[in-house]
Amino acid sequence: MKGSPISNRQLMILITLITISSPIFFLPSEVSKSAGRDGWYIVIFSGLVGMLNVMIFVWLERISPKKSLIQINQETLGRFVGGIVNVLMFFYFVDVGSWVLREFAEFLLSNIEPTTPLFIYLLIGIGMAAYAVSCGLGTFARVSEIIFPIPILTYLSIFLLTLNLFHFEYILPVLENGFIKPLSHSLSTITFLGDVICVSMVINYVKTTKRTAFYALTGMGITVVFFLLAVLSSVLVMGAESTANQTYPILSLISNISIGGILDRFDVLVVAFWMIALFVKITSYLWASTEAACQIFSIKDRRYIIIPILLVYIVSARYKVDGYIDMSTFYSTHAVYFLTFQTFVPLFVLLSALIKQKWKRGKAVTS
């Protein structure tokens, strides 16, 4: 995949599609289980952490222009420590990418055609992503730009069409347990909104300007708004308890929509557009994995590494968990694992880079 330059607008769109893709279907259930009717509050707090993650990558790119996180790690932490961190980052990219691939296959298996072998769905998902990777970053970004309005307008239509079904008493009393207690259940939600680590392997190809940070934050802001709408709509229509018991609350929400028999099968369109967004996320992580492997092992021709990575993705996704329940449990019980690579490692690298930069400036002044 050639690293063609992409615009600030395309960066914004990639951030939105990556973060909004899979979580929007099951996030209302997750936050309702942990915070009940106050799930919206957790989404806002988690969104702020997600914006922090985005700004870390923007800041790192400004310190070391046109370099990926892998290159910055080695430059900042040294060959040995940076090398260890980079290998761990590579395995994290593969791990998360294979999780998303399994989500894609699991959803199709349980909601579309249960008799089809799981392997076939995995092959379809990774095959589409591999083709997108081979077309180049610029082409992939332009395609994302074209399809961006479709899932966004679809999700917005869902929330607008359910307005007449809202029961505002379902969300009262607001913050009954105070401002602090609900945040104790926010870790898993933070990992959904902070899941932009693959952007660290793309941002060095962005034609950066003074407005790059604004576009990046706008991308995350759009995701927060739609997550808020998803959580609030689910709770206001079905109640917090019912939402918590749903596997995919958005699909249950759609089943309440019917306009003169015309939109009785609105769920088919939503699933199709959701798969488009999920395809963008799988492709982004496959790109990050391939790019990281090439930079770590100094491989110039990506054709030598892409096939082994595809095989690792398929095997990892196939044998990672037994089913959706195990997958959902892992997300909620291993939030610290995801946060370590999403936030803590990049933040540590940023602080190290700032200290190193300040030390060099001080040394230059004294000399």
TrEMBL record:
<dbReference type="GO" id="GO:0009847">
    <property type="term" value="P:spore germination"/>
</dbReference>
<feature type="transmembrane region" description="Helical">
    <location>
        <begin position="336"/>
        <end position="355"/>
    </location>
</feature>
<keyword id="KW-0472">Membrane</keyword>
<feature type="transmembrane region" description="Helical">
    <location>
        <begin position="213"/>
        <end position="238"/>
    </location>
</feature>
<feature type="transmembrane region" description="Helical">
    <location>
        <begin position="147"/>
        <end position="166"/>
    </location>
</feature>
<feature type="transmembrane region" description="Helical">
    <location>
        <begin position="80"/>
        <end position="99"/>
    </location>
</feature>
<keyword id="KW-0309">Germination</keyword>
<protein>
    <submittedName>
        <fullName>Spore germination protein (Amino acid permease)</fullName>
    </submittedName>
</protein>
<dbReference type="InterPro" id="IPR004761">
    <property type="entry name" value="Spore_GerAB"/>
</dbReference>
<feature type="transmembrane region" description="Helical">
    <location>
        <begin position="119"/>
        <end position="140"/>
    </location>
</feature>
<dbReference type="Pfam" id="PF03845">
    <property type="entry name" value="Spore_permease"/>
</dbReference>
<keyword id="KW-0812">Transmembrane</keyword>
<feature type="transmembrane region" description="Helical">
    <location>
        <begin position="268"/>
        <end position="288"/>
    </location>
</feature>
<feature type="transmembrane region" description="Helical">
    <location>
        <begin position="304"/>
        <end position="321"/>
    </location>
</feature>
<feature type="transmembrane region" description="Helical">
    <location>
        <begin position="12"/>
        <end position="28"/>
    </location>
</feature>
<keyword id="KW-0813">Transport</keyword>
<feature type="transmembrane region" description="Helical">
    <location>
        <begin position="40"/>
        <end position="60"/>
    </location>
</feature>
<keyword id="KW-1133">Transmembrane helix</keyword>
<dbReference type="GO" id="GO:0016020">
    <property type="term" value="C:membrane"/>
</dbReference>
<feature type="transmembrane region" description="Helical">
    <location>
        <begin position="186"/>
        <end position="206"/>
    </location>
</feature>
<comment type="similarity">
    <text>Belongs to the amino acid-polyamine-organocation (APC) superfamily. Spore germination protein (SGP) (TC 2.A.3.9) family.</text>
</comment>
